[in-house]
């Protein structure tokens, strides 16, 4: 099941130029996607914390997102997923509970490719 594979899940995303034309396609493991998201966030002034990249800690942190990021008065909770990756039941439950509090300054994002966070960078 892709949701439990974690590290083996692959994310496939594209670089596009300003006109929208694709000029490169990249495949990466979920851990590489997390690293790229963290790099982009940190490069633009976000304080980031990466959670549960080790399968042994997943049980303790079940449902929590992969990345928590703060800048000014905005909080991002980011769940990174490889292509075809699906949220586990614990992640869906956490997302539903946190979305009750989501608003102007708190965002829960399920991210399959780095371009999805560009509006925050």
- Secondary-structure-based class equals alpha+beta
* Tally of contiguous helical segments: 4
- Amino- and carboxy-terminal Cα gap: 33 Å
The name of the CATH topology is Trna Endonuclease, Chain: A, domain 1
Count of discrete domains: 1
Q: How would you sum up the major sheet?
A: 4 strands, mixed
Low-confidence stretches: 1-8
Which CATH architecture would you pick? 3-Layer(aba) Sandwich
Number of strands: 6
Name the overall outline: globular
Report the top-level CATH class: Alpha Beta
Proportion of residues in β-strands = 25-35%
Compressed to H and E, one letter per element, the order equals: HEEHEHEEHE
What is the average per-residue confidence, as pLDDT, rounded to a whole number? 79
Radius of gyration: 14 Å
Instruction: Classify the helix fraction into a percent range.
Output: 25-40%
List the helices and strands and how they pair.
Layout: H1 2-5, E1 10-16, E2 22-29, H2 30-43, E3 47-50, H3 55-58, E4 67-71, E5 74-80, H4 89-99, E6 106-111
Parallel strand pairs: 5-6
Antiparallel strand pairs: 1-2, 3-4, 4-5
Question: What this model shows, in words?
Answer:
The protein is an alpha+beta fold. It has one domain (about 1-120): Trna Endonuclease, Chain: A, domain 1 (3-Layer(aba) Sandwich). The chain is built from four helices and six strands. A four-stranded mixed sheet has the order 3-4-5-6, sandwiched between helices. α4 (about 90-100) links the parallel β5 (about 75-80) and β6. The protein is globular.
């Amino acid at each position: 099941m892709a949701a439990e594979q974690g590290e083996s899940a692959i994310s496939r995303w594209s670089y596009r130029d300003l006109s929208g034309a694709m000029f490169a396609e990249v495949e990466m493991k979920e851990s590489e996607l997390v690293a790229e998201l963290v790099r982009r966030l940190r490069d633009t002034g976000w304080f980031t914390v990466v959670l549960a990249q080790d399968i042994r800690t997943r049980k303790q942190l079940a449902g929590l997102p992969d990345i928590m990021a703060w800048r000014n008065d905005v909080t991002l909770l980011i769940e990174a997923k490889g292509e075809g990756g699906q949220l586990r039941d614990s992640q869906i439950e956490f997302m539903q509970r946190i979305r009750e509090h989501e608003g102007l300054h708190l965002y829960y994002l399920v991210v399959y490719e780095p371009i999805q966070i560009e509006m925050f960078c």
